[in-house]
Write a structure and sequence with these properties.
It is a single chain. The protein has strands at about 20-25, 35-40, 50-55, 60-65, 75-80, 90-95, 105-115. By secondary structure, the protein is mostly beta strands. The chain has one domain: Immunoglobulin-like (Sandwich), CATH 2.60.40.10. It has a four-stranded antiparallel sheet, with no helix packed on it. Strands 1-2-5 form a three-stranded antiparallel sheet, with no helix packed on it. The protein is elongated, with a radius of gyration of 16 Å. The N and C termini lie far apart (about 50 Å).
Length: about 120
């Protein structure tokens, strides 16, 4: 008897085939946090990820290290730090790597906007 623990379309791949498949960023209503959803290729060997949010002046406002994740479909809350008012344009840089991140195995950049306090989303 064979028990399949993976979706048939999601067969774990070897390390050299792992990529970031999708990244989405959604600001929370408080505007100082963002929900980050990231999906990578299903894997055999657990990858590392580095998520860094930059403001319009390229200052780092949030950073998250994920070491040897066990999941290929992930959600995280990142906090926007070092700003009095978070309204504005940002970029989230997601890097996937194994032993070294210079250069990363894969990278995605996702822009997002945090609205002003009085604006509807």
């Amino acid at each position: 008897m064979e028990i399949n623990i993976f979706d048939s379309g999601e067969v774990p791949r070897p390390k050299d085939q792992i990529r970031i498949e999708d990244v989405s960023v959604t600001p929370y209503p408080d505007r100082f946090r963002v929900l980050v959803k990231i999906r990578v290729t299903p894997f055999r060997d657990r990858p590392n990820l580095l998520l860094v949010a930059h403001d319009d002046d390229d200052r780092i406002v949030s950073e998250l290290n994920i070491i040897e994740t066990m999941h290929h479909d992930m959600e995280f809350t990142m906090h926007i730090r070092g700003v009095d008012d978070p309204a504005g344009a940002y970029a989230l840089v997601a890097e996937l790597f194994y032993e070294t991140r210079n250069p990363p195995q894969d990278q995605k950049i996702k822009g997002f906007v945090i609205p002003k306090a009085d604006e509807e989303r």
